[in-house]
């Protein structure tokens, strides 16, 4: 072996000069054998170590094979197992020479550091923004810094205003009583199963469009029609998610060539934009022609259209489009998916269902007089539904609508648990895993127990860094209060009238997506309370 080659081979800070000397003494064939033996030793050692800790790191491929196996089964369960073994945080190492590296954590101390204490050091980051740019532009969901701060301030003020609250209450009452209940009644009368997740997704899509755009797209109507805007919105979200699975270079090449998922994305965004820009045009016209409309409407589009930017100019159509699209995305599927898991859990916990019914009945009996069909819950009554609030929070603990979230590190940092974070590192926080950790929720962490949220019958909230379903710190979900109100009204209105039964053997598993959908929906049948309860009373009397 030529000595110049040798120095290239062995000059590395990781190899000592003694080792280089040893190698010089060995014939080439033995060097190869020795390297092979070392590789096998390292592989066996890391496999044994890895399998002990629930995570295997292979030579060259890193942890990729473990991840692929995890994705094939259930990525959220796999991550929960690994995080439990690793004490709450670990660094995922992708194949050598790739940038597939990130820190994954489920430690509440780290969450507080990330979401609050060092908030400015952990923005959404360029990687996220570039990936979602075409669909979300500079809206609240994708923006950082001043662009985010300005939208956040306006939205927070608006969500707390009396006009906005009354508009959200009205729009929800209208949707529940004129659309949801008739659709459910028709399914009941037909005696056929219905996909409750689909019905709920339609309801929250219509509702968030009423809040963001002041327009009702009408997805939840008899016959459950396909609405081009809603379909395009769903397709655009799914095609954008594909960008997180592919290497950046690949999706950029597909975009350039207008092929595959990128072609699908471009076309879907065109439909979304056409709808949004038409609503914006009509609203500008309406606002300039009628003083009455200026004061009557309190949806987000109207609020932002009336405001001016930092230079005193009206906001551009593109900015208004970004604001609305981001709010629709944020409030579209989160509450419906949470409600679908909640109804599935109730089906397995009839005692919890009974406790919710008793709470609702106590409240409705105080009012007296109204027939069940006419019963409309008032905001002050919804506020008093503590047990229902607890049952929904408990569903979100076990099945958070946003199962994982991420940030990017701006400057080198260290987590409270000692994990070192280099500038540019991606940090993933595993919300789903956090809800199932004994170290956070105790020995009964896997049980569905609304009582853990109650003290003397009153709902007690938890730290946002322990219960992260709504995020925490300055980027805490803006729609949290509204989401609870919406979920409580929908759940109480259905449960008061129907027993919801999940179709036997219907497979319920989470879908691999940014939102925790049920992969096969939730097929249910409905029994009217007045049909179920005489039978239940008879059973009770007999026993
Ligand atoms: C059960 C229902 C909901 C859950 C679990 C939920 C959860 C979340 C989470 C985890 C985030 C942080 C996302 C991130 O920064 O990556 C978030 C942000 C946000 N949510 Fe919600 N959300 C729900 C309902 C809603 C509703 C109904 C609306 C609006 C009508 C809404 C509006 C927003 C907005 C605007 C943000 C962005 C806040 C910011 O970045 O400053 N959410 N939500």
From TrEMBL:
It is a single-pass membrane protein. PROSITE patterns: CYTOCHROME_P450 (PS00086). It is found in: Membrane. Its cofactor is heme. Transmembrane segments: none annotated. Heme binds at residue 477. GO terms for biological process: lipid metabolic process. Keywords: Heme, Iron, Membrane, Metal-binding, Monooxygenase, Oxidoreductase, Transmembrane, Transmembrane helix. One of its GO terms (molecular function) is oxidoreductase activity, acting on paired donors, with incorporation or reduction of molecular oxygen. GO terms for cellular component: membrane. InterPro entries: Cyt_P450, Cyt_P450_CS, Cyt_P450_E_grp-I, Cyt_P450_sf. This is (wild Malaysian banana) hypothetical protein. Belongs to the cytochrome P450 family. It comes from Musa acuminata subsp. malaccensis.
């Amino acid at each position: 072996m030529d000595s110049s080659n040798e120095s290239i081979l062995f000059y590395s800070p990781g190899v000592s000069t003694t080792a280089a000397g040893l190698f010089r003494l060995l014939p080439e064939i033995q060097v190869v054998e020795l390297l092979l033996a070392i590789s096998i030793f390292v592989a066996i050692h890391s496999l044994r170590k890895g399998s002990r800790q629930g995570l295997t790191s292979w030579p060259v491929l890193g942890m990729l094979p473990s991840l692929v196996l995890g994705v094939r089964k259930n990525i959220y369960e796999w991550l929960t197992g690994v995080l439990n073994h690793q004490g709450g945080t670990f660094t995922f190492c992708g194949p050598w020479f790739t940038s597939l590296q990130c820190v994954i954590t489920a430690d509440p101390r780290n969450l507080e550091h990330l979401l609050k204490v060092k908030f400015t050091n952990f923005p959404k980051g360029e990687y996220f923004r570039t990936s979602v740019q075409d669909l979300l532009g500079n809206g609240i969901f994708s923006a950082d810094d001043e662009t985010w701060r300005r939208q956040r301030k306006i939205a927070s003020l608006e969500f707390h205003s009396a006009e906005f609250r009354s508009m959200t209450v009205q729009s929800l009452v209208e949707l529940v009583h004129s659309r949801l209940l008739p659709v459910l009644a028709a399914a009941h009368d037909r005696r056929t199963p219905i996909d409750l997740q689909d019905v709920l997704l339609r309801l929250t899509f219509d509702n968030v469009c009423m809040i963001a755009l002041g327009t009702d797209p009408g997805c939840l109507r008899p016959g459950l029609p396909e609405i081009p805007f809603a379909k395009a919105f769903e397709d655009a979200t799914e095609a954008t998610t594909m960008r997180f699975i592919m290497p950046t270079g690949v999706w950029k090449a597909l975009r350039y060539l207008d092929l595959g998922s990128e072609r699908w994305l471009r076309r879907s965004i065109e439909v979304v934009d056409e709808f949004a820009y038409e609503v914006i045009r009509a609203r500008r016209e309406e606002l300039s022609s009628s003083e009455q409309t200026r004061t009557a409407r309190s949806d987000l589009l109207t609020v932002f259209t009336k405001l001016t930017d930092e230079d005193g100019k009206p906001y551009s159509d593109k900015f208004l489009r970004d604001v609305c699209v981001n709010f629709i995305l944020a409030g579209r599927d989160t509450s419906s998916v949470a409600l679908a898991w909640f109804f599935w859990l109730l089906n397995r916990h009839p005692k919890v269902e009974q406790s919710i019914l008793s709470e609702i009945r106590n409240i409705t009996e105080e009012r007296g007089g109204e027939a069940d069909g006419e019963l409309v819950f008032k905001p002050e009554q919804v506020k008093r539904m503590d047990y229902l609030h607890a049952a929904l929070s408990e569903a979100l603990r076990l099945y958070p609508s946003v199962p994982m979230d991420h940030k990017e590190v701006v400057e080198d940092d260290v987590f409270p648990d000692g994990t070192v974070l280099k500038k540019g590192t991606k940090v993933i926080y595993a919300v789903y895993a956090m809800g199932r950790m004994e170290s956070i929720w105790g020995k009964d962490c896997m049980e569905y127990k609304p009582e853990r949220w109650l003290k003397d019958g009153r709902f007690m909230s938890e730290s946002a860094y322990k219960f992260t379903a709504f995020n925490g710190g300055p980027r805490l979900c803006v729609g949290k209060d509204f989401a609870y109100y919406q979920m409580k009204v929908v759940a109480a209105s259905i449960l008061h009238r129907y027993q919801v039964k999940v179709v036997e053997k219907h497979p319920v598993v989470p879908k691999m997506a940014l939102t925790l959908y049920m992969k096969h929906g939730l097929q249910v049948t409905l029994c009217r309370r007045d049909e179920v309860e005489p039978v239940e009373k008879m059973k009770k009397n007999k026993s």
